[in-house]
Design a protein that fits this description.
Blueprint lengths: L20 E10 L2 E11 L4 E6 L5 H8 L7 E6 L2 E3 L4 H7 L1 E4 L11 H5 L6 E2 L2 E2 L1 H14 L17 H14 L4 E5 L7 H16 L3 E5 L3 H7 L2 E6 L2 E7 L5 H10 L11 H4 L7
Parallel strand pairs: 3-10, 3-11, 6-9, 9-10
Antiparallel strand pairs: 1-2, 1-4, 4-5, 7-8, 11-12
Helix pairs in contact: 4-5, 5-6
Length: 278
């Protein structure tokens, strides 16, 4: 397998309509614990894929493996048809993979512009180009139809949960991300803020950006996802178009790994609070 800097031109056949990201036989072990077991998954450009699973199913392990935090124990990762290895988050960023974790990694004591350019500041004659950074931040938010922010010079600490999500996503888009991974983007948000974030996710898809959403809220999943992928005890037990599933079949897969089982889809513990951590 090649590194990010040493890609070759080989890869899965079929350039037309091929996945942006393909995982093939991905495993991840921590000692005797096998967190991922031969996962095969395709993420298509411009499509919103929801990754769901119960506590300990392996969702966090998968996104950290894709994001370069942990290397897989075995298996192959293809990016736009080319085999790659994201050994670090910087490698993943260079490919065009941006991850928005649940804590958002924002600095409350900095304003929106400073957060969006943190570590990527624009310089003119070795001085910060505040004018260009402010202009770029304002334009990126406008392109994403983020209208709830009154000023890009607001401190991030003063923003609502939905606004903070918007800033974190805008930061990823501004860095030319082709795949945005969002970890529990609507957790702890109110109804209006949740709607704002879901609209933002749809706009990413409309812009041709692939989105991988990890969520425990099936209502949010079915309102926004084009595709669904279900993990059960480290194994990808099902994936396909979201229209092929309903809440009951999804819950059955999440809790048993078997669609033939009959779970109570009306249970609040299953339908709205599947897994905040796994």
């Amino acid at each position: 397998m090649t590194t990010v800097a040493e890609r070759d031109e080989s890869g899965p056949p079929g350039a037309a309509g091929r996945p942006l990201l393909s995982l093939r036989g991905i495993t991840k072990s921590f000692g005797a614990v096998e967190a991922l077991r031969g996962v095969d998954l395709d993420i298509m450009p411009g499509k919103i894929t929801a990754l769901v699973g119960d506590n300990g199913a392996g969702k966090s392990t998968m996104i950290k493996t894709i994001s370069g935090i942990w290397g897989p124990t075995s298996g192959e990762m293809y990016w736009d048809g080319e085999p790659v290895t994201a050994r670090t988050p910087r490698d993943a960023d260079a490919l065009g993979i941006a991850t928005v974790y649940q804590d958002l990694a924002l600095c409350d004591n900095l304003d929106i512009v400073q957060n969006m350019f943190l570590g990527h500041e624009l310089l003119t004659h070795r001085l910060l180009d505040e004018t260009e950074m402010e202009k770029a931040a304002r334009q990126t938010l406008a392109d994403l139809s983020v209208t709830s922010v009154s000023s890009v010079r607001q401190l991030v600490g003063s923003l609502s949960g939905g606004q903070r999500q918007s800033v974190a996503v805008a930061r990823a888009v501004m860095r030319d991300a082709k795949l945005v991974i969002m970890d529990e983007p609507t957790a702890a948000l109110g109804v209006s803020q949740t709607a704002q974030v879901l609209d933002l996710i749809r706009r990413l898809g409309d812009r041709g950006i692939a989105v991988l959403v990890i969520s425990h809220n099936l209502s949010d999943v079915f309102s926004v996802a084009d595709r669904l992928a279900v993990l059960y005890l480290g194994t990808l037990v099902s994936s396909g178009a979201a229209t092929e599933y309903d809440a009951q079949s999804a819950v059955e897969l999440i809790t048993t790994g078997d669609r033939s089982q009959h779970a109570d889809a009306a249970s609040p513990a299953l339908s709205t609070d599947i897994d905040p951590e796994g």
